[in-house]
Amino acid sequence: MTVSAGTASPARFARIQADRATCSVPERWSSASGRITKTSTSSVCRTWCPYCQRMQENVYAYAEVRSYLDRRFTYARLNRDTTGGTHRFNGRTLSSKELGMALGARGVPTTVFMKPDGTPIAKQPGYIKRPVFLQMLRYFGSGAYEEQSFEAFRAQASE
Asked: Of all residues in the chain, what percent carry a pLDDT higher than 90?
């Protein structure tokens, strides 16, 4: 599935075509029963990246974005420059850089959306403007991606 944001920047989502592997996520993402209960999104970034900093300041810091993320998503920010610690993904132990690559983040920033079980849905590289990012959050957070294209979702939302 390719999802397009139309003429907005960035213009395209790229479907993660991996072998539909699941992602082992931190304990704080789980409910008391041990199951992931929300759609997940991860922002793969680097501390020196000016576009990553702009996303943090102009998109993630915005109250409506924070509110929607808090209600509908489990959110994690993965710093590819971090050298300490490891992550479990697809039965392997990976560094932050390796996990970013496993999620399909070839550059930064990259936003990755995952199902509650950790299965990757889609990724979007590059800076995403706030209005488009909010539409993406609503698209994935509502589960609309399972039934319609992003273009159809955007058209329906603008009616």
From this structure: 48
